[in-house]
């Protein structure tokens, strides 16, 4: 990916700027990959118009932001935009398709910003929640995302803890 944040003490704080026009093919992860207990806090800026997919399809789950469950990786979105990205899972993929253990959980908390206009070749154009994952959406907007497979393009939860969204706008 363009940005890889890995390890329990690793943190990435994004308050502005743009991560744009990156192509990430034939690899596991995403444009921004949060792994092995790392933390990503997005307060501003944009992750936009990136492509994360396999040219011939396949089973690798990619997204503009990929948050692994291993060692409890986390993503806090307080502002900014994740928009116009294209890949297997579109905007945000959180969790593990094949869990490495049964105690780690990837977490995402959304308190602002927007996830919009992303396209997924598979599931969850906005946010794909898979396996060992927990998502809480308090504020922000998730809208206008497209998923090729399935009917729920903005938000899809597969075998995960039930997400909550008390004050969010999901269209």
Radius of gyration: 14 Å
Mean pLDDT: 83
- Proportion of beta-strand residues: over 45%
Helix content: under 10%
What's the main sheet like? Answer: 9 strands, parallel
How large is the count of helical segments?
A: 0
- Uncertain residue ranges: 159-171
Q: What string gives the helices and strands in order?
A: EEEEEEEEEEEEEEEEEEEE
Shape: globular
Q: How many individual β-strands?
A: 20
Distance between the termini: 29 Å
Structural class from helices and strands?
Answer: mainly beta
Produce the secondary structure layout.
Elements: E1 3-6, E2 11-14, E3 18-20, E4 23-25, E5 29-35, E6 39-42, E7 46-48, E8 51-53, E9 62-67, E10 74-77, E11 81-83, E12 86-87, E13 92-95, E14 106-116, E15 119-120, E16 127-130, E17 133-143, E18 146-147, E19 155-158, E20 169-170
Parallel strand pairs: 1-5, 2-6, 3-7, 4-8, 5-9, 6-10, 7-11, 8-12, 9-13, 10-14, 11-14, 12-15, 13-16, 14-17, 15-18, 16-19, 17-20
């Amino acid at each position: 990916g363009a940005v890889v944040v890995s390890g329990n003490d690793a943190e990435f704080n994004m308050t502005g700027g743009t991560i744009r026009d990156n192509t990430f093919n034939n690899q596991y992860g995403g444009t921004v990959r949060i792994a092995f207990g790392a933390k990503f806090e997005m307060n501003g800026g944009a992750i936009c118009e990136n492509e994360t997919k396999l040219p011939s399809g396949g089973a690798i789950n990619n997204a503009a932001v990929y948050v692994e469950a291993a060692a409890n990786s986390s993503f806090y979105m307080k502002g900014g935009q994740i928009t116009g990205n294209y890949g297997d899972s579109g905007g945000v993929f959180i969790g593990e398709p094949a869990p490495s253990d049964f105690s780690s959980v990837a977490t995402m908390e959304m308190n602002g910003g927007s996830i919009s206009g992303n396209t997924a070749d598979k599931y969850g154009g906005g946010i794909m929640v898979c396996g060992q994952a927990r998502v809480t959406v308090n504020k922000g907007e998730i809208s206008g995302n497209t998923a090729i497979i399935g009917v729920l393009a903005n938000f899809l939860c597969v075998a995960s803890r039930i997400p909550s969204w008390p004050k969010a706008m999901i269209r």
